[in-house]
Structures are given as C-alpha cells and as structure tokens.
C-alpha cells in the first residue's frame, strides 16, 4: 500500500536529473558527430579508412557524452534508485540516513545506514544550481517522510 504523501512533497515516483546539463551534453555530442561525419564525407583527399576514423571518433565522443548524461535519482514508493555513470543501486527508504548537498559539492551525497556514503550524480548544481538545491531539498523531505514511516513499521 502506498505511503500517503504529506503536502508539499512531490508525487511518487519522481525522477531527479540534471536536465540542462543533459541537453547541453547531448546537443554537443550530436553536433560534433554530425560535423565529423559531414567533414569526412566532403573531403575528397580522405581514404575510406580516414572517413571511418573520423566517424568512429565522433561516435566515441558521442558515446562518452551519452554516458555522462546518464545520471538520475528516481524516488518511488519502494525506495530510491541512484543511477550514476556506470552503476545503478536501489535503496530502501530506511537505508538513507541523510541527503547532503554542501557548498562546493559536485553532486548530492547520500549517507547510508551502513556507514557509507553514496554519490547521487543525478542531482548536481553544475549549470542549474537553484534547481539542484530544490531537488536536494525535495529528496531530503521525501527521505525524512518515508524513512521515518518505514522504520516505525
């Protein structure tokens, strides 16, 4: 049975991700891939191998930028899923002790009940600091609301 959401909290499920950063990364990647592809096809002095190298480099850079745009934090009734560059981890609400976003942090850190800290790269103040602060506060409020309810049962 879903936990009732106190007023002021976002409806679950909610996804936090650095949308502006994602748009910038994917736009640059697509533009670079297009430029390298067109350039390799227009230059008559290029051999087939040269063209393949140019296009392959564009695909490689685009792939890296897609990987960099992957992070997100998804909060649902069951808990929180943290998707970073190459890993994904599901956490129960009770596992999260604190949500931290201090001045100068590159992204949110989740303090866990086992004494470790998990970076949550889906909330990062890079381009949109105000949005990241609002997202961190919303996640903190959700953790407080659901973590307390989950530990009381």
Automatic annotation (TrEMBL):
Q: InterPro entries of this UniProt entry? A: CFP-6_PH (IPR019692)
Ranges of residues in domain Low molecular weight protein antigen 6 PH = 70-140
Q: Mind listing the UniProt keywords for this protein, alphabetically?
A: Membrane, Transmembrane, Transmembrane helix
The membrane-spanning stretches of this chain are 23-46, 52-68
Domain of life the protein comes from? Bacteria
This protein is called Low molecular weight protein antigen 6 PH domain-containing protein
User: In which organism is this protein found?
Assistant: Streptomyces olivoverticillatus
